[in-house]
Amino acid sequence: MKNLYRIMFSIGLVLLAVQGYSQESQPAFRPWVYWERNMDFGAVLSGPKELQIVDSLGTKRGRVVSSENIIGAYVSPNGKKVGYVTATEVWVVQIETGQKELVASGYCEHFNWAGNSQSFTFALSEYKKDSSPAVYNLKLFWADGDGKNLKQVYP
C-alpha cells in the first residue's frame, strides 16, 4: 500500500510539472515595433491583432485591427498607408480612412514600399511537399499603393 501511495504521489508530481511546463511553453503576447530606418512613421504591435501607427514625435496617426494575428507591418514612406501580413494574408490599409484591401492570400516572405509610396512589392512562398524533394516556390508580386492592379513579376 505504501508503494501505491508513492507511485500515485510521483504521478501527481509529474502531472503538475507537465501542466506547469505546458503553460510556460505557450508564448505570451509580446509588443513589437516596426520602424524602418530614416522613416518618420512606424507601427507598434500593441496587441496580437492591433497596430498603432505613430510618427517620430510620438503622435498617434491611426489604428489598424485585424481578424488574424499580425506577424509583420510596413508603413509607407509618406505615412498614409500600412501594409500588414498575417500567417495567411497580405493587406493594405489607408490610415486616415481605415479602408482595408485584401491584396493576396498566402505566406508573405517579403514586403517593400516604393520610395514614392505609389506601389509596393511582396513575395509569397508556397510549400510543395508532394515534389521530390519537397521544395518552396517563391512568387514575387507588384501592386499599386492601394493594393490593386496586382501583377506577378517572378517567375
Annotate the secondary structure layout.
Blueprint: H1 2-25, E1 32-34, E2 41-47, E3 50-55, E4 60-65, E5 72-75, E6 81-85, E7 89-94, E8 100-105, E9 107-113, E10 119-128, E11 135-144, E12 151-154
Antiparallel strand pairs: 1-2, 2-3, 3-4, 5-6, 6-7, 7-8, 9-10, 10-11, 11-12
Can you tag this structure with a few keywords?
disordered N terminus; alpha+beta; four-stranded antiparallel β-sheet; 1 helix; 155 residues; 12 strands; Methylamine Dehydrogenase, Chain H
What does this structure look like?
Helices cover 15% and strands 48% of the residues. The chain is of the alpha+beta class and 155 residues long. The protein has a single domain, classed as 7 Propeller (Methylamine Dehydrogenase, Chain H). The chain has a four-stranded antiparallel beta sheet with strand order 1-2-3-4, with no helix packed on it. A hairpin with a 5-residue loop joins β7 and β8. The longest helix is centred in the first third of the chain and has 24 residues, at 2-25.
Report Rg: 22 Å
Adjacency order of strands in the biggest sheet: 1-2-3-4
Low-pLDDT residue spans: 3-23
Question: What count of domains describes the coordinates?
Answer: 1
Morphology: globular
What percent of the residues sit in helical stretches (DSSP H or I)?
10-25%
Query: How many β-strand runs?
Result: 12
CATH superfamily: YVTN repeat-like/Quinoprotein amine dehydrogenase
Largest sheet: 4 strands, antiparallel
Could you tell me the CATH topology label. Methylamine Dehydrogenase, Chain H
CATH class: Mainly Beta
Q: How much strand content do the residues show?
A: over 45%
Tally of separate helices = 1
